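Posting for a labmate who doesn't have an account.
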Amino acid sequence: MRKDTRSNCPINLSLEIFGDRWTLLVLRDVIFAGARHFRELLAGPERISSNVLADRLAALVEHGLLTKADDPSHKQKVTYNLTEQAIQLVPVFAQLNIWGTRHLPVTDVHAARARVLEDGGPPAWEAFMDELREVHLGPGARLRPAPPGPTVTARMEAACAAVLDGAAAP
């Protein structure tokens, strides 16, 4: 944590971490797109530069929002994993998704994912957080048993696919 913060206000301290134009987008890609390697994050739709991405990843690791580990499948790769702190941002992302869908000209694909989160409300957010815990922290990290039926991740993917299928239909 930086020592030269403007104040100890929780909003200010949060903005010291998230207040640039890229950090939340990097976290978004890890949370929602499942990106866990540098190249996957570099391929995001906003076209972040490699030096900015490297800086943001280092800052997220430094602030305890991501961990970095050698990828056992490739000697020159590392894998980034969410920490519990980052997973607890899911309700913030859900609210940003919902607000953006209501007030901004988002694409139908992005609106579909937001609708899944909005329709499911906090129970869906909690289930999604447990899915992320299982993927990023390990199988024993869930706080509650998996609910029956498709996962929140699968429902978001299906909603996006349905929009894309509808767009492709004549």
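Reply:
Got it, the structure tokens are right above this. Helices lie at 10-18, 23-32, 38-42, 50-62, 84-87, 90-103, 108-137, 152-168.
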